[in-house]
Amino acid sequence: MFRKPLIASIYTSPSRLFHTSVANKMLQVWGRRTSSNVQAVLWCLAELNVPYTQYDIGHRFGGNNTPEYLAMNPNGLVPVIRDGDDEPLFESSAIVRYLAAKYGSDAFWPKDPAKRAQVDKWAEWAKTNVFLGFTAPIFWPVVRTPKSKQNPEQIRGAIASLDKFLDIAETELSKKTFLAGEEFTLADIQLGHALFRYFDIDIERKKRPNLERYYETLKGRKAFQDMVMVSYDELRAKEE
C-alpha cells in the first residue's frame, strides 16, 4: 500500500533557500509542481516512499537563474535533486534512474542487467517518443499558446506523429498489464506522467482501449493522483 512520504513544499528567497539546503540531509528537489519533468521525479519518489523536501523553483516562482541554482544546473532548468551530501543531479531521466537504482525494488528496477535493460528500453522509448512527442509539439501549442495564435494544421500533424507511438503502446498493453510487463516499473513513470495531460486537454484522440485501461489503472494509484494529476491552469495562455 502506498504510504505518503514526508514532504515539505517550500517557497522562500533564493539566497535563504540555497543557504538552508546545504545542511539538509533529507533528499531535496528543486522544481515547481506544474513542471511535467518535476512530476515524473515526484511521482517516482512517492512510489518509492522516499522522504524529501521540495522547493518551488521556476516559472512564476523564479529562482532558477540565480548563481546558486546555476551552480547546480548550468541549464537553469528544473528539476534538480540533491541526496544528502551527494553532488546535485539534473536531467529528470537521470534522476529517476538514480532513484530507481538506490531506492527501488527488484520488480521496479531489476538488478539483473538483461532484465533491467528491458525496462530501460521502454522507459527510454516512452520519454523520447511519447513525452517529447506530446509536450512541446502538442501541449504547448494547445495550452500555452493563445487561441488566436494556434496553428490547427500543425497541431493535427503533431497528433498524427504521436499517434504512431501511442499505437505501439496500445499493442504492447494488449499483451501485458504495464508497459514493460506485469509489474509497475520505471517505464510506467516515463510513459504515464504524460498521459494525464494527454487525456485532459481538448484534442482529438483515437480510441485505444488498452491504453485507456492502462491510464485508468494509473489513476487508481494515489502517488499518480497526488503528483501527476495536478492543475496546470497557471500555464494556460491568456488571450491577447
Question: Descriptors for this entry?
Answer:
Glutathione_S-Trfase_N; transferase activity; Glutathione_S-Trfase; five-stranded mixed beta sheet; Glutathione S-transferase Yfyf (Class Pi), Chain A, domain 2; Glutathione S-transferase; globular; alpha/beta; 5 strands; transferase; Glutaredoxin
Give the gist of this structure.
This protein is of the alpha/beta class and 240 residues long. It is built from 10 helices and 5 strands; from the N terminus they run E-H-E-H-E-H-E-E-H-H-H-H-H-H-H. A 5-stranded mixed beta sheet has the order 1-3-2-4-5, covered by helices on one side.
Q: What's the helical proportion of residues?
A: 40-55%
Gyration radius from CA atoms, angstroms? 18 Å
* DSSP helical segment count: 10
Structural class from helices and strands?
Answer: alpha/beta
Please count the beta strands (DSSP E, at least 2 residues each): 5
Largest sheet: 5 strands, mixed
β-strand amount: 5-15%
Q: In terms of per-residue confidence, which ranges show pLDDT below 50 for 5 or more consecutive residues?
A: 1-6, 8-16, 19-23
CATH topology of the largest domain: Glutathione S-transferase Yfyf (Class Pi), Chain A, domain 2
What is the CATH domain class of the largest domain? Mainly Alpha
CATH architecture of the largest domain: Up-down Bundle
Give the count of structural domains.
Answer: 2
Averaged pLDDT, please?
92
**Cross-sheet strand order for the largest sheet:** 1-3-2-4-5
Principal-axis shape equals: globular
Q: Which H/E pattern describes the elements? A: EHEHEHEEHHHHHHH
Cα distance spanning the termini: 47 Å
